[in-house]
Structure formats: C-alpha cells, structure tokens
Design a protein that fits this description.
- This protein is mainly alpha-helical.
- It has one domain (2-260).
- It is built from 15 helices and no strands.
- The radius of gyration is 20 Å and the shape is globular.
C-alpha cells in the first residue's frame, strides 16, 4: 500500500516533475552556453566585476567570476537553482496532506487500510526522491555541459553543490509539510514556507553587511547549504548533518501533527 501511495503521488505530479526537470536543464544549459563568452572576455569581465560595489559582491558572494566555480556559483547557485529547489520542495510539501483535505477526499483516503503516518510517509518519500532526482539531473547536465564548454570544475565539487540545494529543498519541503499538517490549508502552508525562505535568504544576503545580523547568519539553512562555497570547498559535514537533522525533525513533527489533528472534509 505504501508503494502504491508513492507511485500515485509521482503520477499526480508527473507534469510538474517534467516541467521542473526541463526548466532546470534549460537553465543550466543556457548558463553553460554563455560561459565561453565570459571566459574569452575574462580581462574585461574582471574589470567590470571589480567596478561593482563591494556590498553587491558580498551579498551575492561574487568571487573570481571568470573561473568555472566562480561563474557557476554566481549565475546558478547564488539564487536561481536554490530557488527552484525551494519552490519544488515547498509546493509539494504544502500540498502533501492539504490537497486531499481541500478536495473533500481526505476521509476516503483515511478509510483505506493504511495509517495516517504511512500516508505522510508515502507522500514524503515521493517528495524527497523527486528532489533527489532533480539534483541528479542537474549534476549530469552540469558535468556533461562543463566538459562541452571547457568549464573547469570538479565532478565531486558539482556533486556537493547539487547535494546542497537538494538538502535545502528538503528543509522547505518539511516546513511546508508541517504547516500544512497543522493548518489543513494549502495556501497558508505554501505562503508561509515561501515567506520563511525569503526571510532566510535576506538574512543570508544581508548578514555579512549588517553587523547586527551577523550573529544570526549561521542560523539560516542557506548558510548551512551554501555559505561554505560548495563548488570549491564542499559542504561541511556538520552543516550537511544539520540540514538532514532539521529535515527529519520537520518530517516527524508533520507526521505527528497530521496524526493528531481532526480531519474535516
């Protein structure tokens, strides 16, 4: 029954999976296609980057833009790719338990010989594996594309960067899932999880610039996932473990909240 629920969740979201996959591959492909122009104009680009305000370079962690790791860090892993994984995680997590309830089919689902915990577990496994699959797809596109355009970045370094955004997506999937399990409302869960992601991103971006925010910088999932520049240095094991631990904690809290809440349809 659990496997059936996982397959049903994938089937219900196959259009979204396909759309995000194509969009992510296209995004990576376009950026890789631009890189030879950036590399060939490295002197001019370096001067241009040097002319940027220091605050802007600090906010977006722009360093050595014309190198492979510097280019990908700035163009893909500073905003766009993390945003994709957060959106996928938050949207799927927030709809995991709320969609059935809002459609009026929650009672029917819960009459099946499967516990509420298993319902959450089945949907959760589908979400986690979908995000992991997107991470693998991104890694394959970047590995093949970087070789095609002579963008020199290590295969393992790319794996670390892709794993970092997958873990970030898991965290916000957990937040969406928990708020959805508590409220029973998809809009509330999605809006709250996206708002929390934006707040964390602002803190991560502005923290190095504002002295009062610096003590809080290390409390953001963005810092755990991206603060160590994973394309050059990987993800510290303590931060990777923290991302996993927070995700698991959110998943467990969501399962408990869904188990205890009175479901009305």
């Amino acid at each position: 029954m659990l496997a059936t629920l996982i397959l049903k969740t994938w089937r219900d979201h196959w259009r979204a999976i396909l759309g995000w996959s194509l969009g992510l591959a296209a995004l990576a492909g376009v950026e890789l296609a631009v890189y030879p122009t950036i590399r060939n104009a490295s002197v001019g680009m370096s001067k241009l980057m040097d002319s940027f305000p220091p605050a802007l370079k600090t906010m977006f962690r722009i360093t050595d833009y014309t190198s492979g790791p510097g280019f990908l860090s700035t163009e893909l892993f500073s905003i766009m790719v993390p945003l994709v994984f957060i959106c996928v995680g938050a949207s799927w997590g927030s709809s995991a338990t709320t969609t059935e309830e809002e459609r009026g089919t929650g009672d029917l689902l819960l009459t099946l010989p499967i516990s509420r915990t298993d319902v959450v577990m089945g949907k959760l496994i589908a979400i986690v594996t979908a995000l992991a699959g997107l991470g693998v797809l991104l890694w394959v596109v970047l590995v093949l594309g970087s070789r095609a355009v002579n963008l020199h970045v290590g295969t393992l370094d790319l794996a670390w960067a892709c794993a970092a955004v997958v873990l970030l997506g898991w965290v916000y999937a957990g937040i969406g899932l928990l708020i959805g399990a508590l409220s029973g409302r998809h809009a509330i869960a999605l809006g709250s999880s996206i708002a929390l992601a934006l707040a964390a991103f602002l803190l991560y971006s502005l923290g190095p610039l504002v002295h009062a925010l610096q003590p809080w910088l290390k409390a953001t999932p963005f810092h755990w996932a991206l603060g160590n520049d994973p394309l050059r240095n990987g993800v510290p094991l303590q931060y990777a473990g923290l991302l996993v631990l927070v995700s698991v904690g959110l998943f467990a809290a969501a399962a408990l909240a869904f188990q205890r809440r009175d479901i009305g349809t």
